[in-house]
UniProtKB/TrEMBL annotation:
Domain named Fe-S hydro-lyase tartrate dehydratase alpha-type catalytic: residues: 11-277
GO MF annotation terms: 4 iron, 4 sulfur cluster binding; fumarate hydratase activity; metal ion binding
Species of provenance: Megamonas funiformis
Name this protein carries in UniProt: Fumarate hydratase
Pfam family, one: Fumerase
Recorded superkingdom: Bacteria
C-alpha cells in the first residue's frame, strides 16, 4: 500500500490547471503549423497565423490561450494499492482547481445551479471528475479544461446497428455542419462509439486527450478517423472564416455496446485543445 497526501494532489492539480490554460500541447501546436502550410485560403492562413502567434504569446507570458478557461474535466486513474491520506480525493481535486484558477487569474465560469439562480461559484468548482480504479500504486490525473463555445455545439446520436459506418459518418457530419464556424475552428473532434448514451459521451471527451498525431490502434477505426477528417476538411468551414483547415484531428474511442445499439457521441473542441497530465 502506497500513501499519497491529499495536499500533494491539490498542489499538482492547481499547477496543472494553470499549465493547461497557458501552454498549448506540442502536438496541437504542430498540427496548427501543418495546417498553416497546407491551408489554401489566404484569409484562412491569416487566421492561422494569428492563432499560432496567440499560442506563442500565451506560452511566453504565462497567460491564458483563451479567455474561456473552461469547465474543468478531470480523468483519474487510481491504483488500487494507493491510499489517500489527509482528505478526500474529490475534495483534494476541487481544492486544486479553486487554487489554480484563483492564483492563475483564470476566468471562473461555473454556476452552482444550471437553470434558475445560475449563481457563479467564484472558483470554477466543482470539477467534472471521472475516476477509474486500476491495478498498481500510481495515481494518474489528467486535467482537461473545456470551453463552452465548442461544448455547446457537441452532440449525440442514438443509432441502431443497421445504420453502420455510413450512419456513423452521417451522424458526425450532421453535428459538424450544424456547428459550422461557431466552435472556433480548426477543431479537434473527439468521438465515442458504443457503450450507453452516457458512456459514449465520456469516451468522446477522453478521445480529446490523445495526441492529434496518434491514430486509433484498431486499423478500421484509424481508417474511419482519417476518412472523417477528410470529410470535415472538405466542408469549407476552415479556420474561423472559411478555408480548408476545418479540423486538426479526429480521435475515436470505442467500447462494447448492446446488441440493439450504436451510440455515437461527438465532442467538439476548439483549436485550443488543452490538457495536462501528472502521474503521482
Amino acid at each position: 500500500m502506497r500513501t499519497i497526501q491529499a495536499e500533494q494532489i491539490t498542489q499538482e492539480v492547481a499547477q496543472m490547471c494553470k499549465e493547461a490554460a497557458y501552454y498549448l500541447p506540442g502536438d496541437v501546436f504542430a498540427a496548427l503549423e501543418r495546417g498553416r502550410l497546407s491551408e489554401k485560403s489566404p484569409v484562412g492562413r491569416e487566421v492561422l497565423d494569428q492563432i499560432i502567434t496567440n499560442a506563442k504569446i500565451a506560452k511566453e507570458e504565462d497567460r491564458p490561450i483563451c479567455q474561456d478557461t473552461g469547465m474543468t474535466i478531470v480523468f483519474v486513474e487510481l491504483g488500487q494499492d494507493v491510499h489517500i491520506e489527509g482528505g478526500n480525493l474529490n475534495d483534494a481535486i476541487n481544492a486544486g482547481v479553486a487554487k489554480g484558477y484563483t492564483e492563475g487569474y483564470l476566468r471562473k465560469s461555473v454556476v452552482a445551479e444550471p437553470l434558475f439562480d445560475r449563481k457563479n461559484t467564484q472558483d470554477n468548482t466543482p470539477a467534472v471528475i471521472y475516476t477509474e480504479i486500476v491495478p498498481g500504486d500510481k495515481l494518474t490525473i489528467q486535467v482537461e479544461p473545456k470551453g463552452f463555445g465548442s461544448e455547446n455545439k457537441s452532440g449525440l446520436k442514438m443509432l441502431v446497428p443497421a445504420d453502420g459506418v455510413k450512419g456513423v459518418k452521417k451522424a458526425v457530419m450532421d453535428i459538424i455542419l450544424h456547428a459550422s464556424c461557431n466552435p472556433c475552428p480548426p477543431m479537434v473532434v473527439g468521438i465515442g462509439i458504443g457503450g450507453t448514451m452516457d458512456r459514449a459521451a465520456v469516451m468522446s471527451k477522453k478521445a480529446l486527450l490523445r495526441p492529434t498525431n496518434v491514430r486509433n490502434a484498431h486499423p478500421e477505426y484509424a481508417k474511419l478517423e482519417e476518412e472523417l477528417l477528410e470529410l470535415i476538411n472538405q466542408t469549407g468551414i476552415g479556420p474561423q472564416l472559411g478555408g480548408t483547415t476545418s479540423a486538426l484531428a479526429v480521435n475515436i474511442e470505442w467500447g462494447p455496446t448492446h446488441i440493439a445499439g450504436l451510440p455515437v457521441a461527438v465532442t467538439i473542441c476548439c483549436h485550443a485543445c488543452r490538457h495536462s497530465k501528472r502521474v503521482l
